[in-house]
Amino acid sequence: MNDAQMDALVQLSSELVGTLDEKAIIQKIVKEAASVLDAQGCSVILIDEATDECYFYGASNASSELLQIHFNRELGVVGKVLSTGEPVLVADASREPSHYAGVDRRTGITTESLLAVPLMVRGRLIGVVEAVNKRASPSFSESDLHLLSIFANFAAVALHNARAFGQCRNEAEAFRAAAVRPDIWMGGSSAMKRVWSLVSKVGQTASTVLISGESGCGKEVVADAIHRAGDRRDRPCICVNCAALDPNLLASELFGHEKGAFTGAHAQRIGRFELAKSGTIFLDEIGDAEWSVQARLLRVLETHRYERLGSSESRFTDARVIAATNVNLEEAVREKRFREDLFHRLNVVSIVIPPLREHLEDVPGILDFFAERCAREMKAQPIRFAPDAVAALAAYGWPGNIRELKNVVERCAVLADGAVIGARELRTISPLADRRSPVNQSDEKVLSGSLWDREKAAIEEALAETGFNQSAAARRLGIALHHLRYRIKKFGIRKP
Prior knowledge:
Layout (H helix, E strand, L loop, with lengths): L2 H15 L4 H16 L1 E9 L6 E5 L8 E5 L4 H9 L3 E3 L11 H6 L6 E8 L2 E11 L7 H36 L12 H14 L5 E4 L6 H10 L8 E5 L5 H9 E2 L11 E2 L1 H4 L4 E5 L6 H13 L1 E3 L6 E3 L3 E6 L3 H6 L5 H7 L2 E4 L10 H16 L5 E2 L1 H8 L6 H15 L4 E2 L1 H7 L13 H4 L4 H15 L4 H8 L3 H11 L5
Parallel strand pairs: 7-14, 7-15, 8-11, 11-14, 16-17
Antiparallel strand pairs: 1-2, 1-6, 2-3, 4-5, 5-6, 9-10, 12-13
Helix pairs in contact: 1-2, 1-5, 2-5, 6-7, 10-12, 13-15, 18-19, 19-20
């Protein structure tokens, strides 16, 4: 080893340990190690800590981009190093029985001689760094092997630190994404006790759960309760609304993407499945996911593997999946709007949350719960509802379910003149649709004059005026196209 090589090694090592991005470190190893050793190419083979599988990272003759190849850890000289933990120098690859030429076909580089050195951290093998073909001579020397071994020590520490930093960063982002949600009391009636009994049982398992119920009935609350009932409670529970994003953005949200994967992908993005590692991912409104996203989700449920958009590297997830829907998935399957195989994968355990109108005996308790919570948030005394106001609220059909009831309580807490709200003041503050109508009337009458009816009518009018041109109707309504499509599905609006 000459002085120039030593200086280059010291400089490169200091740059490596000062970098905390794993991909950047790999690229630097591949590029700079080849320069220091005067090699035609270098590669890094790393062990995936989650799956114990190996991935090859290296350059090719055809492109300067970093190749990513799934690698069988038992093959070739690399396999020998992975099994023994000892460095290997091969002067003539054509005479080496263990040499594996399969990677040569992918890189376009014909291996004539090579060095392979283990990457060790605290006695633990995390991978191999390999150099191929000495440029200035027929083969590498023992001095080159010694130089690469020294360099591998720095490279292994840098990779270990980057992985640890990346894991901490991902966990911090995961807990931010799974910001603590306040508890919501949804009732203790016999109907709700059946729900909580199922939550208690399924929470102790890792089974996939499908929660169904009308919008606003508390599906996310139940999903969070399932997560906290099991041994994943200390890990993040991350919610993704499958109806809020168009298919490409939803795929990126779920699985992540690499820089340059599509127009506007200016930086790498970590997907929700990756952030939910060892925790729970809650797929809300799964019935509105597009067919292409459904296919990706099916693969994750079957194999626990996925790829970021723009990457061929397979990743493993052990996140528990809980899904929720306010549409009839069995009907959607019959109408070919939802994959039957995905439905069966999701429907391992089914929990149906009853609408609020089916457990109205819980209304007084829910009113008190939200009144107390509003008081804490507003730092004020809690409001109370007089018996006539409670009776009026208990006679309402609640098309928006618990979410609508919560909004009524918050509105009253802000606008009420006194601490006690009677039926007359309630009508002034929060005029509800047909509040005096019996609950057992048809849904059409209960919803009469509601916001839902008005929204549906506006959409139908816009579609009629544009000849059911959804893009034109979305522009007329001033909403995004995918939001319009979601509402068309939600209201069951069909083209004449």
